[in-house]
Each structure stands twice: as structure tokens, then as C-alpha cells.
């Protein structure tokens, strides 16, 4: 049979529509990391729930997102690291909820629509960050808190312009436009950005920018400290910091700083202002998702434990500080992971994947710190930033960006997007 141009076009169109329906509208261009060693992991010594600090209203908020991390990914990591009866650090957090993750169409979400729900409090279409389905831009909870004097930051093991960390302050119709997202993050004047993706901040040939701009030089001129090594990061305790440790996504291997080390440094820097200001930190374990796309069980376990070690840093900070709310959740589950069966050996289970894409099942939310008791029950992902706003006495959230009329909010209500 002759393959005519018309047939090729039909096949291409059908393939694109299939991917859109599957919730994977973005071209997939990352591979799962090969490293699977988990000997680095130091579990908690107790299985008991953490004693929650008192107080109704937190001063600071840390939102931790395990990208693609479903409940079974957590169970699998626990089984591998501490056995079925053990606990991960996140599992000791005393308050829990289930969270629905679908996008505005009721479809399987991608990370862009997922972070828009988790940070901007609105539903949207896949691929959009910080925009509703009609293209109107909204403020993230971080941007809204920044207007109240909060310091803000993001930490990730992907490029910092990838969908989830970009949700700190991006407003764009296509998550793949990372060079444009870099400009938006620079213009946001975020206090801390740590991760990979240096190439999106530099002009060719050092980077991929085609506009000739060197955003890192611009950042230095505007007062940021720009760093590129673990040693430089360890030496910082205050100021405004841009840290890009790789040209693309991080490898999660030495000599790079670990996600835990970046999280610890971000907490130190954000809380180190003089006079001290409240802060909001978005932290993502980016590569759990990539391992689950690849259906790589051992790599997914390692990335989940790396994420849990970073969550531990947030928990320890909050336990000492007693003024910080820590929330742990996921934007979606990836891979449709199921755990079944068993075997002759103890601590053995069978793992099966139902797909290489995202799934629409609910994910867990865990909470620790002042106000944690407000994050229980069955929630929509848009409820999370809205409840953060209420806790912090922010009454006008979700909120359109400046220069947009309040009609955008009314239209959103009418369309049922809230």
C-alpha cells in the first residue's frame, strides 16, 4: 500500500490527538536517571506521627511536590528503604488528605495544568502555566504573598524553567517555551531559584537563547548572586540567589548539590533576611515523574527517597521554627503503578505499570505545622493555594494579574472553572 501525504497527515493528526487525550500534550524529552542506589537514605527512627506545632496561622509556607508521585510510589519507596512496617519522613506528617488532580476538562492533567491549580488556584488546559483556558493570566499564591512582603523561591532537580518550578511566577500558554519562562522568572524578582537549566538563561553559543540576552548577567546587575557549584551554595546564608548547577536537567549525582542540600540552603537563605521576612518556598522532586514515565521501578524508588530526604529538611526546619507550614503532595500520578502479589521472601511485592503516561487517580496531601489541620478530607488541587491564602488572611485569591479586569474572574466563575 502506498503511503500518501494525506495518509501521513491523518496518522500524524491522530497521534497528536491521542497524546492530548492521554494528558501528554508536551513532547517528552527527558530520560529516567540510571542511578538506583538508595544507601544514602536515613529514615526516621520513629514511626509515630510528628507532634504538630501549635498556632493557627503560619508565618512561612513550604509546598513540596513529588512530580508523578502517587500513593503507590510512596509505598514502594517505603518498602524498599525501611520495610512495610517502617515510615518515610513524609509519612510521619500528622495531617492527610486526598487530592483530585484533573484539569479543567476533567481529563488527565499534565504538570503545567497541575501546577496552575496548585499555585494559582484555578483549573486550566494542559500546557498552560498561570493562565486560564482563555489566556487570561492570574497571580500565583507566591506572587500574591510577594505583594504582602514575603520572600519567594523555588528549588527543583529539573530545569528551573520546567513546568512545576515555573509555576512560582510564570504566565504562558506553552510550557515548552522555557527561554520565555526564564525572562518571566527574572522579572518576578524571586529571591531564590535553584536547579538546572542554565542554557535557557544564556545566549548562543553558551546557551540556547536567540534574542542575544544574557539573563544571568542581567540578574547580577540587578543584585542577585549567581552561583554554579555546591560549595558556593553552602557558603550563602542571605541575599537573593540564582543557582544553576547544570546546563539542562540535574543528574542528581555528585558534584551537584542534592535536592535536600538545595532545600536546606533555600530555607537558610529565605529566612536569613534582615529584617527577617516571611517566605514561601516551592520545592519539587522533579524526576520521580521521569522514572515513572520510563516504568523504571528502582530509579523511581531512588528519586522518591531523594525527595523524602528534602522533605525531611523542611520538616526539621519547621519543627525548630514552629512557624512554618509544610505541605507535601503531587501534581499527578505517573505510570498507573500497582503493587500486588508477594513472594516467598519477606518484604517482597510485585510491581506493574498500566501506562507510560499520567493517570487521573487522586494523590495524597500531607501537612505539618501551624494550620496543618485545615488540609484534611477530600480536596480539589485548587483548594490547596486557596486554603493557604485564607490561613494567611489573603481574601482576594485567586486573583487576576494587574491590568486585567475583574471580569476575568466573573467569566471564570461562569465557566465553572472554580
Q: Give the CA-CA distance, first to last residue.
A: 50 Å
Whole-number average pLDDT? 90
What structural category do the secondary elements indicate?
alpha/beta
Q: How many helices does DSSP assign?
A: 13
Number of strands: 14
Please state the oligomeric state of the protein chains shown: single chain
Largest sheet: 10 strands, mixed
- Helix content estimate: 25-40%
CATH superfamily: Alkaline Phosphatase, subunit A
Overview of the structural elements:
This protein has 418 residues and is of the alpha/beta class. It has one domain (59-340, 347-414): Alkaline Phosphatase, subunit A, CATH 3.40.720. The protein is 32% helix and 16% strand. α8 links the parallel β5 (225-227) and β6 (241-244). α2 packs across α11. The longest helix has 25 residues, at 297-321. The radius of gyration is 21 Å and the shape is globular.
Secondary-structure topology with pairs:
Blueprint lengths: L4 H17 L38 E7 L4 H12 L12 E6 L10 H10 L20 H6 L4 E9 L3 H4 L11 H11 L3 E5 L18 H7 L3 E3 L2 H5 L6 E4 L14 H12 L8 E7 L1 H7 L3 H25 L2 E6 L3 E2 L3 E3 L9 E3 L5 E2 L3 E6 L8 E4 L2 H9 L15 H8 L4
Parallel strand pairs: 1-7, 1-8, 2-14, 3-4, 3-7, 4-6, 5-6
Antiparallel strand pairs: 2-13, 8-13, 9-12, 10-11
Amino acid at each position: 500500500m502506498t503511503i500518501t501525504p494525506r495518509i501521513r497527515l491523518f496518522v500524524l493528526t491522530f497521534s497528536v490527538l491521542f497524546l492530548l487525550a492521554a494528558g501528554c500534550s508536551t513532547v517528552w524529552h527527558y530520560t529516567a536517571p540510571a542511578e538506583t542506589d538508595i544507601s544514602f537514605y536515613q529514615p526516621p527512627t520513629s514511626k509515630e506521627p510528628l507532634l504538630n506545632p501549635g498556632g493557627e496561622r503560619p508565618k512561612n509556607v513550604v509546598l513540596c511536590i513529588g512530580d508523578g508521585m502517587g500513593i503507590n510510589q510512596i509505598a514502594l519507596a517505603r518498602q524498599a528503604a525501611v520495610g512495610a512496617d517502617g515510615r518515610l519522613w513524609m509519612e510521619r506528617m500528622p495531617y492527610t488528605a486526598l487530592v483530585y488532580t484533573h484539569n479543567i476538562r476533567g481529563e488527565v492533567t499534565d504538570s503545567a495544568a497541575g501546577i496552575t491549580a496548585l499555585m494559582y488556584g484555578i483549573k486550566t488546559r494542559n500546557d498552560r502555566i498561570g493562565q486560564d483556558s482563555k489566556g487570561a493570566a492570574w497571580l500565583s499564591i507566591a506572587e500574591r504573598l510577594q505583594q504582602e512582603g514575603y520572600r519567594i523561591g523555588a528549588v527543583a532537580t529539573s530545569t528551573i524553567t520546567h513546568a512545576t518550578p515555573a509555576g512560582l511566577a510564570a504566565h504562558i500558554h506553552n510550557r515548552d517555551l522555557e527561554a520565555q519562562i526564564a525572562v518571566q522568572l527574572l522579572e518576578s524578582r524571586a529571591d531564590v531559584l535553584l536547579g538546572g537549566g542554565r542554557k535557557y538563561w544564556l545566549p548562543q553559543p553558551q546557551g540556547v537563547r536567540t534574542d542575544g540576552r544574557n539573563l544571568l548577567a542581567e540578574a547580577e546587575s540587578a543584585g542577585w548572586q549567581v552561583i554554579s557549584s555546591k560549595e558556593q551554595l553552602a557558603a550563602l546564608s542571605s541575599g537573593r540567589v540564582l543557582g544553576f548547577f547544570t546546563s539542562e536537567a540535574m543528574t542528581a549525582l555528585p558534584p551537584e548539590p542534592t535536592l535536600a542540600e538545595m532545600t536546606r540552603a533555600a530555607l537558610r537563605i529565605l529566612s536569613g533576611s534582615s529584617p527577617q521576612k516571611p517566605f514561601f518556598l516551592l520545592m519539587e522532586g522533579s524526576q520521580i515523574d521521569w522514572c515513572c514515565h520510563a516504568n523504571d521501578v528502582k530509579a523511581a524508588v531512588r528519586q522518591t527517597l531523594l525527595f523524602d530526604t528534602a522533605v525531611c529538611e523542611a520538616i526539621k526546619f519547621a519543627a525548630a521554627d514552629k512557624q512554618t507550614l509544610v505541605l507535601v503532595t503531587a501534581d499527578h500520578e505517573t505510570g498507573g503503578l500497582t503493587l500486588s502479589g508477594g513472594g516467598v521472601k519477606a518484604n517482597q511485592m510485585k510491581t506493574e505499570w498500566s501506562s507510560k503516561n499520567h493517570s487521573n487517580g487522586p494523590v495524597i496531601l500531607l501537612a505539618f505545622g501551624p494550620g496543618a489541620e485545615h488540609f484534611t478530607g477530600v480536596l480539589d488541587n485548587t483548594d490547596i493555594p486557596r486554603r493557604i491564602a485564607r490561613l494567611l488572611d489573603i481574601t482576594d485569591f485567586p486573583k487576576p494579574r494587574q491590568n486585567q479586569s475583574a471580569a476575568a474572574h466573573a467569566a471564570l466563575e461562569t465557566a465553572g472553572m472554580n
